[in-house]
Design brief:
alpha/beta; Rossmann fold; Alpha-Beta Plaits; 2 domains; four-stranded antiparallel sheet; 11 helices; about 30% strand
């Protein structure tokens, strides 16, 4: 039986008569790294704020850590850690001092080992004031503050936004460690989709406030289309040629003289036929649809409904 840490049913939210969330339903299982994917303004942050109790839905139901009663949901939020937007801390304090202050403010147990948490986020040997931290170090301190209460569910909104490649790698390794070693369930919103493919075990795709699809990483891999990519000297008649010679409408033509063909065709036949029409091939290789491409395809299909 699946154990869900969070579920929502038909959540709706509007601001100034503009609908932000439209019958949105999410299902986050224990142990997931759930990648929450959507364009800016799609409603991701609003949904995260509803989970945290920072705002409330106009209608719909939520279940948090097995609780559906409002009072019990509010109590269960003590078992959630979060980092929404930028972390807030005292710049004149060290990482340890900031964590100690949060520990006091939240009346957390004395058994919490700050050394362990600082080591986990690789700040245990840092003595500098946090105002002098790099952006990556600030994000790691923010995550340390979020996991101080040993949360069952960790919610992160764009945690790698603006980081350099080293900072992104550090955050990725930290999150994988939290999930694999400590069993922390993570809900992560990010527009850097290539990075999510290295983290997420499940995805929820949102467009214009409603959920288009939920899918596991294994299912996503099966649904991502393999395609033949080619770059040519002219695309003026190539669509007609592909349809007539290979009997397929499953292709895309792009302004940079590139073409993706999604049906299986023999490369040698393609090269031979295009050469007869004086079309030169500059690039030709097999590829797999990326998460960005898959999401774009979902959005396109959703908008056409």
């Amino acid at each position: 039986m699946k154990n869900y840490l969070f579920r929502s049913n038909n959540i709706n939210k509007s601001y100034n008569n503009h609908k932000i969330l439209n019958n949105l339903s999410l299902n986050i299982e224990e142990g997931d790294i759930y990648g929450f994917v959507g364009k800016n303004g799609a409603g991701k942050t609003s949904m995260l704020r509803i989970i945290l109790g920072l705002i409330y839905p106009d209608s719909g139901e939520i279940e948090l850590l097995g609780n559906t009663d409002i009072e019990k949901i509010n109590l269960s939020r003590a078992k959630i850690g979060s980092l929404i937007e930028r972390p807030i801390f005292y710049g004149n304090m060290t990482a340890r001092e900031n964590l100690q202050l949060i520990k006091i403010q939240k009346n957390l147990e004395n058994t919490i080992d700050l050394n362990k948490i600082l080591k986990l986020v690789n700040l245990h040997n840092v003595k500098n004031k946090s105002k002098d931290f790099s952006l990556g170090m600030k994000q790691r301190l923010g995550i340390a503050m979020a996991i101080l209460n040993n949360p069952e569910l960790l919610i992160l909104d764009e945690p790698i936004n603006g980081l350099d490649p080293i900072g992104i790698k550090e955050i990725r390794e930290l999150l994988l460690n939290l999930n694999n070693k400590y069993g922390t369930t993570i809900l992560i919103s990010s527009h850097i989709l290539s990075e999510l493919t290295q983290l997420a075990t499940k995805y929820g795709f949102i467009n214009q406030g409603h959920l288009i699809k939920e899918i596991s990483s294994k299912e996503l891999h099966l649904e991502c289309r393999n395609y033949l990519h080619l770059k040519v000297n002219s695309i003026s008649n190539i669509g007609k040629i592909i349809e007539e010679q290979f009997n397929t409408p499953n292709y895309e033509i792009f302004p940079d003289n590139t073409v993706n063909i999604y049906d299986k065709i023999k490369i040698e036949n393609l090269s031979l036929i295009l050469s007869k029409y004086s079309i030169a091939i500059y690039e030709l290789f097999q590829n797999e649809e990326s998460l960005e491409d898959y999401f774009s395809r979902l959005i396109k299909g959703d908008n056409n409904e």
